Amino acid sequence: MRTNRLAAAIAAVASLSVLTACSSDSSGDSGSGKVTITVEGWRPGDQQATIDSVKAQAAEFMKANPDIKVVPKEWQWKSDTFPAQLAGGTLPTTFRVPFTDTKGLVARKQVADVNDEIMALPYAKQLNPTVMEAAKGTDGKVYGLPSDVYANGLHYNRELFTKAGLDPDKPPTTWDEVRTAAKAIHDKTGQTGYATMTKENQGGWILTTLSYAMGGRMEEQDGDKFTATVDNDATKQALELIKAMRWEDKSISGNTSYNWGTINEAFSAGKIGMYVSGSDVYNALVTTNKINPDEYGLAAIPTNGGADVGALGGGSINLVSAKATKAQQKAAVKWIDFFRVSKLVDEKRGIEDAKTLAASKQPIGTPTFPQFDEETWQKQQAWLKPYVNVPTAQMSSFLTGMFEQQLIAEPAAQTQALYAALDPAVQKVLADKNADIDALLKTANENVQGILDKS
User: Fold this and answer.
1) Which residues pair with 96 in a beta bridge?
2) pTM of the entire structure?
3) How many DSSP H helices and E strands does the chain contain?
4) In order of start, what are the domains of the chain with their CATH numbers?
């Protein structure tokens, strides 16, 4: 999900004491003899049906685990609030952070060591080793469970495609086709053909996605040394495309204040023809933004061809507070297993989860990048099929290419600082038709290298 914190926020987290509390609600076991844990429940702004679904699943979990009391909380990871919550001890007992944050929190001993509890899970050895790397510390131990694993995709409005004379069942597969489609949407409907996030590190996140799709890489690693390469030809090509669409075609939005939430809102309102985000964003579009499902389409990230192109991927790691008692740590891993992961590999649990979601009309079947192998994923799709309520036929371009497209991990070192350094470049290109792309990328590269050298 995108990672949306400021570089300054990372510095704030890094400076916190290793003794910093990670949860003010994990103060110990309750006097009733039950272990009490607070858990991440729903995002601010979610519909009541989403809240009811989480509460129903908590009740189901507590029925199966009468010695554990689960208290869901409204919470969402945000770059500008996470450091203060970490410092102030107001996080839930268990919470999710982006892949890119985990190793830093582990190094600073701000999360619990739950390696033994996770490795005891029946499916532990079936988890994708590449995905699991994001949950490990430098000591090789596993500190959390991955979930919401995604590959970025192209989200598009089928109704705007139709009005523009485009075939909504044949979304763009190259960036030249994206440009052509965006211009057609703008010229024939008056709406924005394509838009991009621009701030809170999300402009850099999406620019990195485009660079990957054109064969670029943002860092090079040689042992422990990282070299910034954000000024590569592919990143330049991506910015030149954005600039041409903005000032020549007038098809791309000049909005320089889009973040993950506001671009979702505009897209759901039918004001944007296409944008790039995580493949799983449909859930938020439904539960928070009330999108019309008939208008939604999802395609694989367009590429320009070549061996090095691919889709940027990431996800979340479910972690446990460093201040949780051992009993709370075990209870938290049980909850993460129940709420996030076991439904992907255990048929009984998967069906139970689907029924609970269906009862509250929550999205079922939204594409995420598989945490297990293709065989396990195919089995899951078979038992899930009777309950799927998302328009998978309108997501076929993404689904058919999911196991074929190369998934490229986010930059490994100082990820958020790198994204933050690229935000101004995206904003400048959208705001100034005379923007000097070479100079912008040179400055960004120097800034990132300086951060890498210090770290």
Assistant:
1) 318
2) 0.74
3) 18, 11
4) 7-149+313-391 (3.40.190.10), 150-310+407-454 (3.40.190.10)
